[in-house]
Amino acid sequence: MGENVVFAVLWVVFSVLGEIGDRVIIRHNPMYYIVSNQGQLALQAFNFLLVVLTPVFVFVVLFLVFTMVRFTTKRGEMPPANKRFAIDNKAFVLVWVGGSIALNLLFFLHPTTSAMEQMFALDQPAANTHDLVVDVTARQWQWIFSYPQYGLTQTLTPNGQNLLELPVNVPVKFVLRSYDPYHTYDQYADVIHSFWVPAFGIKEDVIPGETRYEYLTPTAITSYAVNPMVRVQCAEVCGPGHPWMESPLAVVSDQQFAQWVKAQKALANG
Amino acid sequence: MAHAMTVPESGHAPRPRKAPMPPVLRAFLWAAIGFLLLNTFVIAVDPFRGHPFVTGPSVVFGWVGAAIGWLLGIGLYDAVLLPLMGFPTRWQERQQGWRRYWEFATDHKVIGLQYMMFAVGGFLIAGGIAMLMRYELMTPYLTIFHYPSNYLTAVGIHGTLMMFSFATVFMIGGLGNYFVPLMIGARETVLSKLSGIGVWLVPVGILTVLFSPLLGEWSTGWRGYEPLAGQDANGILFYYLGVLALTMSSLIVALNLVATVMFRRAPGLTWGRLPLFVWGQVTVNLLMLIWFPEIQTTFVMALLDKVVPLNFFTATGSPLTYLMLFWLFGHPEVYIIAVPAFAIWNEIIPVMAQKSLFGRQWAVIGLVFVMMLSGLVWAHHMFTNLRNSEILPFSFFTEMISIPTGFAYMSAIGTLWKSKVRLNTPMLWILMSMFNFLIGGLTGVFLADPIVNLQLHDTFWVVGHFHYTIIGSMVFSGFGAIYYWLPKLSGRTFNETWGKTLAIITFLAFNLTFSQFFLLGLHGMNRWVPAYPAYLQPMNFEVSIFAFILGAAFLGNILYIGYCWRNGAQAGENPWGAKTPEWFTSSPAPRYNFPVQPEIVGSLYLYGEGTKVPVVTTALGELAATSRATQDPQFDWHDYAPDGGGVTS
Amino acid sequence: MEYESPKDEKTPNTENSEENQWSRRQFLVGTAAIGVAGAVTLFGRQSLVNAARSVFGSPVSSGTVHLYAYDYYYIPNYMTWRVGDRMEVIFQNQSHTHWHEWTMGRHVNEAYFQAFGNLPADAWQEDFWDGVPVTLSDPYGIDNFVPNQAIVTYVGPKAAYNIQSGGDFSPTLKPGGSLHLSFTVPNKPGLWDFGCFVQQYIHYRTGMRGQVMILPA
Predict the structure, then answer these.
(1) Which chain B residues are closer than 8 Å to A79 by Cβ?
(2) Which residue in the set A53, A85, A235 is minimally distant from B442, CB to CB?
């Protein structure tokens, strides 16, 4: 009995310490920098899993350490052979199997299903009546952004890079396509890319021959200069240009966005 | 000139002949001839603009010629074809000496060591490439790799060789071939000649993948995603062909081992008494028999997409179909690697603790259910491109697969609880493997959750996760198994201080390297990039330093094991006091394993008061061994046993 | 299954007889030689070629020369021309999927070639074709053609060349396309670079480049 009690006490103690550690991690944001509603969902799910898995982690690690400290023979000694050993313990098996089933069912309900339902709800047409629509075209090895509602076909920085700029707190509908608008003799010639803004907490693959949608709302004014996780990055290997298939991104206020649209229009016309 | 000697000479008159060419060199020569013949033929009938000597189609046929030439040269011609056609042959199986490892063999122990030898070769090559990759990632811009395509090719070769020539080969082709027949008390495998040929496909595969840059850089990594693969230079062809050779070799192993376990078990070795390691091998062999033909078919389709070209997997066809087909194989592949490791934990722990295995049936059920569920989870590699409606079912099965995986832990924990275990080198590796797989498994729970996956997919979190599961569980268990069985393999043992020191260094270096991958992934480090934003450099730099230490530690372990193999202290016949049949014969085992046929009369995993030695020699075995088996290697006692030898139980 | 042990021998110990042993030395030397040859073909080709070129020089090409574009490299990637020679370069795109161009000049700022770097507005600081008379013919599968400052004569209807403006002298070919360029090597001796800058210079960044050494007349 002694070992059972010692182990249980240690498990509780270290689990509590682990949970305290989790609070610290969560306060410092384990995903470093998240500025979208979609990313918040991911972050919450991540934190939940972290909190629930900590006792599991502590249990096994403590057991391994416990084995090395308490359950070993001295070097060169043989284990005793004159004992009878249990090969079954229904209570332990029941708790283990039942516990792992319960834990996995819990994870499937929350955060898996609950978070996905929230994400699917964000994707509902009813929730997206006043979206900013951004057509994102991925081609090897470039992101091209156009804003059909504003008649902008390709938005650029002053030195000619493609630029994604979004107003803060406005739902955005990204329309994701992979093809080359400049070389239309084979519009199916492009490859799979993945549209990823690390700070938005989501990536969606862009597949030639298909159109995909992604919905999210940026929640803070920020830019690549503020935090390098605010960047558009291709996350699926797409050939030798893959590491350079990126693009700066700025989330700005409504007024700044309006000015920017005006400037881009002037640039396109002049 | 040397080539001429291999032509069969007419007549039986023995006369002095020059020594034959070393089979490996002859195989190279015949491979070169095979390549030239078919390549030239294809170039002649299908020339390309500019008349290059090697084109995509020509190199495919040329490779087939080379592979056939290689196999013929290594022994298929002398040892199989000539006797099959009724011609006299000079081939005789060598019974001793180092030369038998460098030619065709039918002894499963020689074949097993050949597999291990080639697998370690693949591991060292791919590991060396990993060191280059880590060197490149110390800086956010290109250094030793001049162009991203070089780096991506290196990533692809690293992954492909590690997966197909090491991870699936070492535990199954190597340890499986060597120990499964010994552990079931068999004298031979069923398909020993096929197995002896199959092992020589491993060097074919390794060399093919390694030399793929000769045909041009390929950028897809080990997964060969379409339609990118179809746009890559011809190097991708050698990826398909190399993997074809390697999977074919593993498929032969699976076929042979399953047949051997079904038909060659010792009397009394019922399925209920089958050693756990053998259960692990049988389950993964079944996985291989199911999924390897599937990936081979897929790769043939992708190859045709590239060389014809067809449009199976381009956007005209369906790129997602390739992804589906790849992961349909790809996820079972992960368990093909991991399941033998789980089996080894519960093989070694009861022995080292001299304590009965806890919940043996649960350990077996865990292996079998992991095997079955592994075919239902593939699309969790595709949450970022799956239709929304398909995400939740795959997430469900992915989360559920952790339940049978947990059974391996349950048995191990139940066995170790209140035990007095010998904390020696093999045991230390096993405990480390359990720790590493715990990290790999728990980080996998995050990835199984789709909303988190959408952020972490294709980042270094994933890279950390699968290196924990594969290196952490499989490689660490593999080292544990090798230290455990070293006395069996070589008759020699190792020094505990050295063994433990090396294990601890490896463990620390491994964890310091790969634990930081999770942080890098969370911080926005994506995969397949030799150039990355500068804010990620400090941690990458540090990771690389630990990675170099890890590489050195692996090398140190391999060298130390090699040293002990030759120069270690003599080990006893059964130094750990194990009960499984492989320890009931001399070390290393003789050609036909057991001088007398062992019979299994009790559980192999019960220890302590009142238990008996489960492996005994029967009169039937005595009779069989003395009368026939020493004379006739094809002897199979099943043919003579009155009740079929207890195969049906 | 067949078992091939001769019936008159009790134990198959013939491996000890010297006639049946293959040579250990032959084995070691042979595999080592194959290994070295393999390593050289994998890693040492360019160094070997450079060494050979510095020792023996490079043959001067004149008359009709083929220049093939692959993904993402040229064959040949080194040529020697002589001032005043009459050349016809048949430029051909061997790729099945990508368009490729041929530009030639000097000095490109590679400091830009990193993550989030700026893109150079124009690739070569000095365009080789500036002021050079060149005749284009046999256009097939032309993506576009930028004449820049070259003095171009077009054979056949101009529409086939899809003439554009902006950037260096650059014929760009669709997959499978080809073009003949006829010219007299101008008096611009020295070492010139050529490369393919399409797709944001990534073809060039990933190694699609070469050199032309122009010898004085």
Answers:
(1) 352-355, 419-422
(2) A53
Local confidence band at B500 (pLDDT 50, 70, 90 cut-offs): very high
C116 touches chain A (CB under 8 A): yes
Whether residues B425 and B295 share a domain: the answer is: yes
Q: For chain C, what is the mean pLDDT? A: 84
Residues B441 and B533 in one domain: yes
The residue type at B81: L
pLDDT at C121 over 60: no
| Contact between B440 and B466 (Cβ < 8 Å) | yes
d(CA A51, CA A49): 5
In this structure, the answer to whether residues B459 and B558 fall within a common structural domain is yes
In whole angstroms, give the CA distance from residue A106 to residue A113: 10
Residue B628 has pLDDT above 60, yes or no: no
Same domain, B148 and B283: yes
A159/C199 touch (CB, cutoff 8 Å), yes or no: no
Does pLDDT of C19 surpass 70?
no
Which residue from B468, B485, B388 is spatially nearest to B433, judged by alpha carbons? B468
Give A224's DSSP letter.
T
What tens-digit pLDDT sequence spans chain A (270 residues)?
688 999 999 999 999 999 999 999 999 999 999 999 999 999 999 999 999 999 999 999 999 999 999 999 888 788 887 778 888 899 999 999 999 999 999 999 999 999 999 999 988 888 888 889 999 999 988 899 999 999 999 998 877 788 999 999 999 999 999 988 888 777 667 899 999 999 999 999 999 988 999 999 999 999 999 999 999 999 999 998 898 898 989 999 999 999 999 999 988 886
Closest Cβ–Cβ partner in B384, B385, B409 for A60: B409
Q: Do B431 and B359 have their domain in common?
A: yes
The beta-carbon neighbor of B25 closest among C19, C30, C70 is: C30
Name beta bridge partners: A177: A137
Helix (H) / strand (E) element for A43: namely helix A37-70
Tell me how far CA of residue B478 lies from CA of B171, B216, B338, B473, in angstroms. 7, 34, 11, 8
**B612 touching A (Cβ < 8 Å):** no
pLDDT at B629: 46
- Whether B401 is covered by a domain: the verdict is yes
Are B513 and B543 a contacting pair, CB within 8 Å?
A: yes
B34 and B110 together in one domain? no
Respond yes or no on whether the N-terminal peptide bond of residue B309 is cis (omega within 30° of 0): yes
Tell me, yes or no, whether B273 and B369 share the same domain: yes
Q: What kind and span of H or E run contains C134?
A: strand C133-146
* Min Cα separation B143/chain A (Å): 14
Q: Which residue type, as a one-letter code, is found at position C196? A: C
Angle between helical axes of B108-136 and B537-567 (0-180°, round to 10): 150
Domain boundary among B54, B85, B116: B85
* Structural domain for B609, as ranges: 581-646
pLDDT at B646 over 50: no
On whether both B61 and B131 belong to a single domain, the answer is no
Q: Is residue A31 a contact partner of residue A43, using CB atoms and an 8 Å limit?
A: yes
Position B575 in a domain: no
Q: Contact B232/C71 with Cβ under 8 angstroms?
A: yes
For an interface test with A, which of C70, C122, C199, C205 has the most A Cβ atoms less than 10 Å from its Cβ? C199
Determine, yes or no, domain membership for B186. Answer: yes
Q: Cα separation of B591 and B183, whole Å?
A: 15
